[in-house]
Amino acid sequence: MKQIVREKYSEIALQDRATNATSCCGSTATGTYTIMSDNYADLEGYHPDADLGLGCGLPTEFARIQPGDTVLDLGSGAGNDCFVARAETGASGKVIGVDFTPQMILLARQNTEKLGYNNVEFRQGDIEDLPVSDNSVDVVVSNCVLNLVPDKSRVIGEIMRVLRPGGHFSISDVVLRGDLPDKLKAAAEMYAGCVAGAMQIDDYLEAIRQAGFDALTVQKQKPILIPDDILLDYLSPAELQAFTASKTGIFSITVYAEKPGEQRERPTMVGLPLAAKPCCEPGSGCC
Description:
Layout: H1 2-13, H2 17-20, H3 59-62, E1 70-74, H4 80-89, E2 94-99, H5 102-115, E3 120-124, E4 137-143, H6 152-162, E5 163-177, H7 182-185, H8 188-192, E6 199-200, H9 201-210, E7 214-223, H10 228-231, H11 237-245, E8 249-258
């Protein structure tokens, strides 16, 4: 399954945004559908060149990022959420993007160079084994990525490991209520399309609790509708009728939770950590 994801997203990295936006995770041979109905355009730091139209929410909008924070984006793609996070954390903070696909890392670094940012970096790696030190991150964000990972509990454990005590995450993802037909679960296109790899919502939330996180909150939830003509590429008419009657729900959710521990003191001046706060007002002549 990881190889399927790597190949699919290597292809997506070379496509234009209009093509990618026709589906959750890129154009497919069997048709198109979209789950990214949220709009980044009003968020500070948004750069259209970095937006491949692949997400299922706006996690950075809910992430409570503060000036000076270190932010980690899981599955950073072309850098879209990293650049929005950078607008929140400011020049005194740091943003790290991790992605599984070399082509995505190259694209993100090219976008960073165009923008001239020196506090945004991208690392190639597997989010089941993050290339990030223990207790080094204030905020973790991710947009429609955990559903692509075979061992989601391991990723949640990695988030716990890299967050500082008192740190938190805000993650948008795809979840289920009810069971998908086996033919959809087995379809590689549906897996790369963010649906076949989705967990049951109750199991998803319980995995976060079991990892030891506090203050678990579903910040946003919306249904995802896959057109019948797409489903008929995988199901017979009778199977589609049974699937529709089953009332299985596919949802995008944005989830927030905190790592136990005392939060570090946040900066009191925008763009300056506490240690850099001046001893007197600029222009007063005392410095």
